[in-house]
From TrEMBL:
Name of this protein: HTH hxlR-type domain-containing protein
Signal peptide positions on this chain: none
Entry-linked Gene3D superfamilies: Winged helix-like DNA-binding domain superfamily/Winged helix DNA-binding domain
Record's keyword annotation contains DNA-binding: yes
The keyword Lyase is annotated on this UniProt entry: no
Keywords for the protein's UniProt record, in alphabetical order: DNA-binding, Transcription, Transcription regulation
Domain HTH hxlR-type: 89-178
Lineage: superkingdom: Bacteria
Any coiled-coil regions, as ranges: none
């Protein structure tokens, strides 16, 4: 899957969860999806409309009430939903699942299967700031999803980062769709 699409999907907190639920067969009615995600109404609505804008979801014509529409995956959405489901299944602990709602978690793990420097990761991700990347590194290291290695033999010392544990499983789940 294209890294630009992954970045766009993850800009809204609940987009990945909504896609995964639709892949699992949760009905495309707004009330059912809202209940299954356990999201707030505003954040859920923003994520839902974001997925429609990306062309991954569409209103199901002829189904649902105008005030309570039903949604379905588009052909592109089917692939994205399968990837989202694999990613959520790769996280064994429910306490770690909120980390996937953060905007840069999935993109950073996607481009970090092997050791890469800060600059290489930043170059691979469109429009990420140094601060956002640094904060994401700290969060992922804190959860044991990303490992930092400093090569002290190099001058100056050089740090590299790569996905480990659940982070590596998430990386493989994304790359299965590539």
């Amino acid at each position: 899957m294209d890294i630009n699409l992954i970045v766009k999907i993850t800009t809204r907190a609940w987009s990945l969860r909504i896609l995964a639920l639709l892949d699992q067969g949760v009905p495309g009615r707004q009330a059912a999806l809202l209940q299954a995600t356990k999201a707030g109404r505003t954040a859920f609505a923003q994520s839902l409309h974001h997925l429609i804008d990306l062309g991954l979801l569409e209103r199901n014509p002829g189904h649902g009430h105008p005030l309570r529409p039903e949604y379905r995956l588009t052909p592109n959405g089917i692939e994205a939903a399968a990837m989202a489901h694999r990613v959520l299944c790769a996280v064994p602990d429910e306490q770690d699942a909120p980390l996937l709602r953060r905007a840069w978690t999935l993109p950073v793990l996607t481009v970090s299967p092997e050791p890469r420097s800060f600059t290489q990761i930043k170059t691979a991700l469109p429009a990420i700031t140094d601060r956002a990347l640094s904060q994401t590194f700290k969060q992922l290291q804190g959860h044991g999803w990303l490992m930092r290695h400093v090569d002290t033999a190099a001058h100056p010392p050089r740090a590299t980062y790569h996905a480990v544990n659940a982070g590596l499983r998430i990386n493989k789940a994304v790359l299965l769709s590539a």
